[in-house]
Structures are given as structure tokens and as C-alpha cells.
Amino acid sequence: MKVLVTGANGYLGQGIVREILNRGMEVIAADFKTDHVDERADRIECDLFEIENPFEYFGRPDALLHLAWRDGFVHYSDAHIEDLPKHYGFIKALVQSEIKKIAVLGSMHEIGFFEGSINDGTPCNPVTPYGIAKTALRSLTEMLCKKNGIKFQWLRGYYIVGNSGAGSSVFSKIAHAAEEGKRKFPFTMGQNQYDFLNYSDFCGYVAAAVSQDDVLGIVEICSGKPEKLADRVERFIKENHYDIMLEYGAFPDRPYDSKAVWGNSRRIEKILNREY
Fold this sequence. Notes:
Elements: E1 2-6, H1 11-22, E2 26-31, E3 42-45, H2 54-57, E4 63-66, H3 79-95, E5 101-107, E6 116-118, H4 129-148, E7 151-157, E8 159-161, H5 170-179, E9 184-186, E10 193-198, H6 199-210, E11 217-221, E12 226-228, H7 229-239, E13 245-247, E14 261-263, H8 266-273
Parallel strand pairs: 1-2, 1-4, 2-3, 4-5, 5-7, 6-14, 7-11, 8-10, 9-13
Antiparallel strand pairs: 10-12
């Protein structure tokens, strides 16, 4: 199986490409730069949106895993709406070729303000440009795939725990601050509950989902369990032996963040159970 992975040089892309390769699949890794991509991949530096015939350009892949997204952690960035037609055009060009499967990375921010467990049938009422654009792309991609008889997957991500300073999550920011020798980190009260997955698990779950076709549609890439943000961050600091303390209450919670939200892990567990 030959998988085209876009956004391959990003924080998530690097780990996901490695996991896909470890499963014996061939990877075409595309991004503006590919210097951090596993050397086993066929690395191609390009601007996706400038390619007229991506199917032929990327060597006729069997599947697309579309990770590429600008300003993913800046939820009110105009880039989300500005880039939406470009993502649609790129995916449409592949759908109209001989590709067999389209998988796209989604986000729990598609759901909007919600409390409880999220599954593939949970209504989406996004409240940020990021969530709105992701929701629109999901609907458009599903429509294109259904119309053209292409297998469709939407891999909805939650909160990822990793100690790389290269990411933009609170965990990456803490890692970066600790590496700089800072002793305090400004924080919220941390009482909201979220669904957390370690970076390696997240990458493995995405690779497992893409490598099979029995479970299609929306798949929650999640742990299935809620945990208080403060508890997970404190544990993260201990796990990595960082000499840094949280300054609780330095920042307010974002008004659009849910008090308790987590994914339903039923479908990803079905995928993972196939591997054993």
C-alpha cells in the first residue's frame, strides 16, 4: 500500500509517517520542507496547492492521509477559511483520479461547546474558524468520496501529550520552557476535563486506522477517558522530571472550551484489536 502523507514534516506528521512505515507500507511524504521526515519515505518538497495533477505527480498513491493544515493551534486565524477552498481543490483532484482512499485528520474542535462523550454521530456546532473550516472540509470530502465511490475516513484528534518543544500544545510549551530553565509556567486553573493520548499512541492509532478498510467514516482518535487538565499536566511534569511549577489562574479558560469532553473509543478499539 502506497500512502501519500501531506504535512509530513510537521509535529504530528513526523511520528505518523514513522508508524506507517513501521507497518510495512510505502510512504510518499509531502511538505514545504522534509528535513525531519523519516528517510525511509519518498520525501517530496512542494506546495500542494500549486500541483495540477497530484495523483500522477506523487506517483499514483493508493491512499491519501491529509495532515497538512496551517495555524492549527491559532483557532481564530483567517488562514482556516482562506485555505479551505485550496484543501477542497486538492482533495477533489485526487478523488477524481484512480486513488482508492481518502483519510483526513480532523479535530474535536469541530464539535463546538459540548459536554460528554463524542462519537461519529455527535452533531457539530463549531464556534471558531478552525472548527468551522474542519467541519466544512469533512462534509465536502465525504460528499466527494461518496459521489466517486472512494473510501472515506475522518480521523478526529483530541489532546496529544508529547515532550517535544517543536509542537504548539501546552505540553510542548512546558517542555520548551523547562528546557530554557524557566521555573514557573503561567496556566489556567486546569479544571476542564479532556481526552489525552500520548504522542506515540496517537501516531500509532492514526497509522493503524489508515492501514485498514474495515472501519471507515469518522473515527475518534482518542483514549475514551476524561481527565482534568491540571492532573494530566502535573503528571506530565513529573514523568519528564521537569523542575517547573504551574502558576494556576494566570490565564482564564477559553470561553469556547467544554468543561468535560472526551471521545468514544469504540471504533478505534475495533481497529486496534484487529492487530493482535
